[in-house]
């Protein structure tokens, strides 16, 4: 079975990234797994003998969408496409419908989140979802929303989470080769020397409006006079970066915020292991994979009531949950974590226990393959 993924995340080109690790694992489940993804430039990356990433470049979104179309057409002509899996239910989902309908292929639509729900996007989703062979929802919260808002039949939806491989985050340093292990040790020492006397908050995120990183800066500005050792590490990049840096200057937080850019591998794992508390302040998350990464590292977590909040992160037990866009509540939660070491330990232990609810990687891979087989058996 040949599976073609219409993807969104160009980090799949980075062999060290979590998404690349997952793509390689998916490839082992089928004859070949092809990823077609918008990228800064047109480039092909062979992640393994059974997993290939086709990055399509272009100056405009429409150009990239057209080039994705031509690339998938080529794969179909070469008889290397039996099932199409789309990583969204909007434009990529529509593209998947076009291919699946025209060439009688199975179509799996992944619903990893429902954000930026403009009138036009909602119309596309209403068109795409009922026509898919199968819908893979990331969480029970998303499943319920698909049923209630989009009228999707429960029988059409399968809930499957995303596995987080801890070793690829550097959280288990024994798996590193000698060179990376030495690099990790040096980075760990440098972090301790530079930030060891600070209370280190961590945010790992795309820097886009829906993540509401500015709320973290507003809360931090209120806490700094009382807790001058407080420091926020922002790991990630995106279009909001320059704006956020300007906010840091305006709020006089230059000594309390560090932008680290995009990190992967043990360099990312270092932040999870060395920081004291993890923050997520999104307006919306399909699940919140970074939360699972933070849980695995034993970090106390403060997050908005989105994604896996209420399922994995239970307020007061495995984390602190605050309403979206509520700076006073966020500030209060951060103050509690800053001042209460016993609470930090309680939340960290609770998070580790909650992780036991998650299925193993082997179980998830089996579910993914079953979904693709179901889609293969129900061509459009």
Verbal overview:
With 380 residues, the chain is of the alpha/beta class. It folds into two domains: 181 residues, Glycogen Phosphorylase B (Rossmann fold); 189 residues, 3-Layer(aba) Sandwich (Rossmann fold), CATH 3.40.50.2000. An eight-stranded mixed β-sheet has the order 3-4-2-1-5-6-7-8, with helices on both faces. Strands 11-10-9-12-13-14 form a six-stranded parallel β-sheet, sandwiched between helices. Strand 5, helix 3 and strand 6 form a beta-alpha-beta unit. The protein is globular, with a radius of gyration of 21 Å. The model has no long low-confidence stretch (mean pLDDT 92).
CATH topology of the largest domain: Rossmann fold
Q: How much is the average pLDDT? A: 92
CATH architecture of the largest domain: 3-Layer(aba) Sandwich
The helix fraction, in percent, is 40-55%
- What is the helix tally? 13
User: What's the order of the H and E elements?
Assistant: EHEEEHEHEHEHEHEHEHEHEHEEHHH
CATH superfamily of the largest domain: Glycogen Phosphorylase B
- Give a quick account of the main beta sheet: strands, pairing sense, barrel closure: 8 strands, mixed
In oligomeric terms, what are we looking at?
Answer: single chain
Coarse morphology: globular
Quickly count the domains.
2
Strand coverage percent: 15-25%
Amino-to-carboxy terminus distance? 17 Å
User: Strand order within the widest sheet?
Assistant: 3-4-2-1-5-6-7-8
β-strand number? 14
Helix/strand-derived category reads alpha/beta
